[in-house]
């Protein structure tokens, strides 16, 4: 057993790397959308799509990692908190996959291929349908994005609660 604040059982090195690179990719993807909002420049929407697709590829690898590596046992805490945290982690995985998938579908149904940093292109693999593009645009912007904000907020709020109120070094497990 670990003893309180002194030592903790960590997530595997791969899980820790997957976690923080995902955070970085999500941040960059969002910032690019923010900059696009101000500039309306094609460069930023193009980069938004390429980084967004990078989130998808990264998350697919992360799911494989999650299946094959063991999660550390939960810190001592009420059962409901363990269930809520596991449920939140599961939902965050699902959102980080669904978000780029709807972005991709919005693009290809709009008849636009996705340029991956000039390295390769994801072609239009469906018959473009305007109404489908609009549907996925709505899901992307009005449903999934607010959900990402809510669940990420919950997640970071919980991390801060552990850090500053419970002082149980939970963050040390993912550092
Ligand atoms: C985790 C990945 C992604 C995140 C977090 C994300 C986030 C966002 C956000 C916050 C918006 C603005 C929504 C609003 O109008 O309020 C947006 C719009 C958009 N996203 Fe993404 N996105 C991701 C992936 C993608 C991908 C992979 C593509 C396409 C391949 C894409 C294409 C677009 C497009 C075309 C828009 C609409 C721009 C416009 O309104 O003109 N996104 N995204
Ligand atoms: C400053 C930002 C963040 C902090 C401080 C943070 C902190 C943590 C901590 C402490 C854990 C381990 C929890 C435990 O051991 O029970 C964790 C796990 C996790 N975090 Fe974060 N996190 C941050 C951002 C994010 C973001 C933005 C996402 C996704 C949108 C995310 C998704 C996850 C997931 C899915 C896990 C479960 C580990 C796994 O299965 O890979 N985190 N985070």
TrEMBL record:
InterPro entries: Cyt_b561_bac/Ni-Hgenase (IPR011577), Cytochrome_b561_oxidase (IPR052168), Di-haem_cyt_TM (IPR016174). The keyword Metal-binding applies. The chain crosses the membrane at residues 17-38, 90-110, 143-165. Keywords: Cell membrane, Electron transport, Heme, Iron, Membrane, Metal-binding, Transmembrane, Transmembrane helix, Transport. One of its GO terms (cellular component) is plasma membrane. Its cofactor is heme b. GO terms for biological process: respiratory electron transport chain. It is a multi-pass membrane protein. GO terms for molecular function: electron transfer activity; heme binding; metal ion binding. It is found in: Cell membrane. Residues 11-173 form the Cytochrome b561 bacterial/Ni-hydrogenase domain. Its main location: membrane. Belongs to the cytochrome b561 family. This is Cytochrome B. It comes from Psychrobacter urativorans.
């Amino acid at each position: 057993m670990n003893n309180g604040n002194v030592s903790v059982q960590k997530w595997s090195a791969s899980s820790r790397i997957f976690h923080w690179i995902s955070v970085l990719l999500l941040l960059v993807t969002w910032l690019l959308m923010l900059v696009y909002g101000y500039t309306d420049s094609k460069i930023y929407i193009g980069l938004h799509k390429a980084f967004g697709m990078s989130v998808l590829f990264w998350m697919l690898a992360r799911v494989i990692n999650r299946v094959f590596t063991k999660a550390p046992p939960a810190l001592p805490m009420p059962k409901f908190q363990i269930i809520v945290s596991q449920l939140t982690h599961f939902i965050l995985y699902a959102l980080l996959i669904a978000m780029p998938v709807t972005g991709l579908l919005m693009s290809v149904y709009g008849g636009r291929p996705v340029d991956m940093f000039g390295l390769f292109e994801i072609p239009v693999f469906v018959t473009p349908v305007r109404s489908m593009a609009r549907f996925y645009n709505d899901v992307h912007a009005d449903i999934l994005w607010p959900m990402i904000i809510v669940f990420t907020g919950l997640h970071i709020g919980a991390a801060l609660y552990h850090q500053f109120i419970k002082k149980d070094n939970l963050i040390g497990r993912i550092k």
